[in-house]
Amino acid sequence: xxxxxxxxGMSYTSHYFIQTISAKKSSSSEKASSxxxxxxxxxxxxxxxxxxxxxxxxxxxxxxxxxxNPTLYLTANTDYIIKIKNPTDTKHELIIGSNGTEIAKSxxxxxxxxxxxxxxxxxxxxxxxxxxxxxxxxxxxxxxxGQK
Length: 148
Known about the structure:
Layout: E1 5-7, E2 10-15, E3 38-41, E4 44-53, E5 59-63, E6 72-75, E7 78-85, E8 94-98, E9 101-105, E10 114-121, E11 125-131, E12 139-145
Parallel strand pairs: 2-10, 4-7, 6-12
Antiparallel strand pairs: 1-2, 3-4, 4-5, 7-10, 8-9, 8-11, 11-12
């Protein structure tokens, strides 16, 4: 899976491989929350993510469909690039984990910058994502299945 974060005037890239780490199986109720807006090229798929500031300095992740903290449905054996824009006035950093174990992360994105996280997905399971600096409000689920 490839996760990308794009910053205005600056670009950071991180490469990580996801292996199953006590990942729990997804349930049909988790599929109720929606979220995948992506574009595909070959065996690489791009996902757009923006940091979003709500009232009172409350932050969320938002995809190109304007979904807030969306559940991402990914397919194993596919490379993903998550492209992240940070138009807010504070720094953000995307972390992907499983059961409290950090699996991948983007570089820190200063205010007004963008970046990307490249993530080759090699296994199935359910993972979490969050912002290093706003883990209670910028968080969501990644469900990786073996089929499209």
